[in-house]
Design goal:
Cofactor (chains A, B): Fe cation
Shape of chain A: globular
Oligomer: homodimer
Number of strands of chain A: 9
Largest interface: A-B, 39 and 39 residues
Largest sheet of chain A: 6 strands, parallel
GO cellular component, one term (chains A, B): cytosol
InterPro entries (chains A, B): ADH_Fe/GldA (IPR001670), ADH_Fe_C (IPR056798), BDH-like (IPR044731)
Helix content of chain A: 40-55%
Number of domains of chain A: 2
CATH class of the largest domain in chain A: Mainly Alpha
Pfam family, one (chains A, B): Fe-ADH
Domain Alcohol dehydrogenase iron-type/glycerol dehydrogenase GldA (chains A, B): 9-178
Strand order of the largest sheet of chain A: 2-9-6-5-3-4
Chain lengths: 382, 382
């Protein structure tokens, strides 16, 4: 096992009705005024907004609304949020939504005390030395952002989808009420499943140091995602399945399955980020297309680990059968496995490849992912 | 899944050489003087004490030695530590040792600011409202105390082995260097394996709400403990196995495999605490005796979960075969499975039963564990 430091100070308040405690959590941290970030008006329709307002009012906490944050959240919007937060001198950022809202909230929180342009923090021009405290109420389980310090934002001018990470951007408290996720559409449920599986397998397959304990944990998570997704497609109101799905999602990216591994990279995310940046593809949908295509190219580099996936997740005999089983499962669940299903054709491949190669440097794997390799993987996905 | 709050603010600094960073960690928390708690003089013989002193000196941190803490740590010793810590006005407690040293350190840390007798905190006479910050360097992986807030101490006057738990007693930083554990004796390695397995199975079998995800995580941990124990008995210097063993131990009791479960209890610990309190049995050795005996009595209450253990850990077909396989594995590893191996005979059973019944109230399961039930379990262990 590689040397590591594990520190995750986020408090998770998990379960039914927990959104009613948000005012109390903020008050315990001495917060008097928040920027309330959200995306669609689903949260107003579903009554969540009302529950949150009520809880804030009960603790005399003022809030400034900042809505309409979109999937694959945009840098311009983050800049707007920073200006608004500064103008109102809020004491914290409260995210009510899924990963995109939460990532935007973290970026706003980091951007407020920084004197320059927030994109500097994404391109390594400046370090994050402080941030407003972030709180969240999660309405979609997928990105794991509720219990980590990362935030991914798209710079729409440069078509770059980059990330920040800092000890200052862990949410202080994240409220995860699986019942709030029952209104997630069928499509977004399976995209989310693909996203969680991607978080699990990136390290599992690419790490040069991968303890067996960690592989077993990953397999526990993937098996849970598979089982619960199937249950939820049959019965979206199954709370137990919704809860296990959500908690698996959190644990897939809270640092535990990576602590002590080494040499891992995120090639599937690197390639998918190009699809999202260029075609505004839902992140999980892009990942379910890229993963099988990447695996077909990659598996010979780590046959033992692909053998594990085959055996312990799908109960089949060979790495190839395991990859086929994953692709068949995505097909069965209804998340895309071909670029054509995303409206992307062969003519688009050069532009995607260019974007990926731009990402490769940022992802630190430009040496492996040459133009030829990326083109091969993308052709596997046609 | 049951509603839960998960919050674990301990920073784990894991890997080779990490003990050299203790001065830096203390300095980052503004600590100028510590009570340095330890047990045997193994830490002086092995050079650890010197490494720690050097690191403290490099950061101008003064330390007061407090050694000779024993296994199944004693309340009288905790009281001495509190007096010493107060006398020297230390700013923190630094534990260098295994679970007994760390549990004593937590108890001292909680006892210093409390005006009454520290045992009040164990019997619920008073709440822990503050504590000195605790730091630790772990030399034995077993109790999981390095990443939780619990501490178990024996009151030698009343023969009670009770625990405290509080948000104030999480270690701020725990250093886990598996290389420091290479000098652990063969006996203590297998006792530790039994202890970790006990932490895993108590909830796994007794919880009334036990999500499948959590069961899979538990099985990942037990399988890892089994594999790595076997490796380490063959080759104590195998760092990779030592590291996985240590990290599995931490994760077995850091709250994750219990978060969202409900209705669980610790019957094996309850019974074992009587053996430790009355006969000063090593905790893990007591547990490897009690677990199979308890399982033989209990398995009919939760056959599905015993079927899982049989299948996913031992690859056998029935609950009974699973229990037999665990007992056979303990025997093969050389940790006791019979009371007679601990020097305890049938004549001792009434006294043990009395002590267990005293514990049962504290453990909250007096309704299930009647005199007859406890006697039956103990007879299974003869």
């Amino acid at each position: 096992m590689d040397n590591f430091t594990f520190y995750n100070p986020t408090k998770i308040d998990f379960g039914t009705g927990k959104e009613q405690l948000i005012g109390q959590h903020l008050a315990e941290h001495g917060i008097r005024k928040v920027l309330l970030c959200f995306g669609s008006y689903r949260i107003k329709r579903d009554g969540l907004f009302e529950a949150v307002s009520k809880s804030l009012a009960a603790h005399d906490i003022e809030f400034i609304e900042f809505g309409s944050i979109v999937s694959n959240p945009l840098l311009s919007k983050v800049r707007d949020g920073i200006a608004l937060a500064r103008g109102h001198q809020v004491g914290a950022v409260l995210s009510v939504g899924g990963g995109s809202v939460l990532d935007s909230s973290k970026a706003i929180a980091a951007g407020v005390p920084y004197q320059g342009d927030v994109w500097d923090l994404f391109i390594g021009k400046a370090d994050i030395v402080s941030a407003l405290p972030v709180f969240s109420i999660l309405t979609l389980a997928a990105t794991g952002s509720e219990m980590n310090s990362g935030a991914v934002v798209t710079n729409e001018a440069t078509k770059e989808k980059f990330a920040i990470q800092s000890v200052h951007t862990y949410p202080r408290v994240s409220i995860v009420n699986p019942a709030l996720m029952q209104t997630v559409s069928r499509d977004y449920l399976v995209y989310s499943a693909a996203d969680i599986i991607a978080h699990c397998i990136e390290g599992y397959f690419t790490a040069t140091v991968q303890p067996t304990l960690h592989s077993r944990m990953v397999e526990a998570l993937i098996n849970t995602v598979i089982d619960t997704t199937e249950t939820l497609l049959d019965n979206p109101a199954d709370y137990a399945a919704r809860a296990e799905f959500a908690w698996a999602s959190t644990q897939a990216l809270n640092g535990l399955i990576y602590a002590g591994t080494a040499g891992f990279s995120y090639p599937n995310h690197m390639i998918e980020h190009a699809l999202s940046a260029l075609f505004n593809v839902p992140h999980g949908a892009g990942l379910s297309v890229i993963m099988p295509a990447w695996m077909k190219w990659y598996h010979g580099r780590n046959p033992a680990q692909f053998q594990r996936l085959a055996q312990y997740v799908f109960g089949v005999d060979t790495p190839q059968q395991g990859i086929a089983a994953l692709e068949a499962w995505f097909d069965k669940m209804g998340t895309p496995t071909r670029l054509s299903q995303l409206g992307i054709g062969e003519a688009d491949l050069p532009a995607i490849t260019d974007n990926v190669l731009g990402n490769a440097k940022w992802f630190g794997i430009a040496d492996i992912y040459s133009r030829d390799v990326v083109a091969t993987i993308l052709r596997n996905a046609l």
